[in-house]
Design goal:
mainly alpha; single chain
């Protein structure tokens, strides 16, 4: 399974914040917004996903969202029925074993 944002920036899943930033800047040099708007958009989206440590952890654990409109679809459900995101699984992992 490949995690698309890591692939777009050409970095490993264990990359540090500094490595992510350096990869982002290097990718922008290759696909600047004025010459490659689509490439710039992909690079910017990947960077936005990876710069937040919690989102990065979720990507490492669960991979990218399979359907782009999944969050919008989940918002149609009542609040008490929503189970989107890694929070519930992370809470299970944080609980001490019995």
């Amino acid at each position: 399974m490949t995690n698309a944002p890591f692939v777009v920036l050409g970095i490993d899943e264990t990359a540090s914040d500094e490595m992510i930033r350096e990869a982002y800047i290097a990718a922008l040099r290759i696909s600047p917004p004025d010459r490659d708007p689509a490439g710039f958009s992909r690079i910017r989206d990947a960077y936005e996903q990876l710069r937040d440590p919690e989102k990065r952890l979720a990507l490492r654990l669960f991979g990218p969202i399979p359907l782009p409109d999944l969050i919008a679809l989940a918002e149609t459900f009542p609040e008490e029925r929503r189970h989107v995101g890694p929070e519930l699984w992370l809470n299970v992992l944080r609980e001490p074993r019995r």
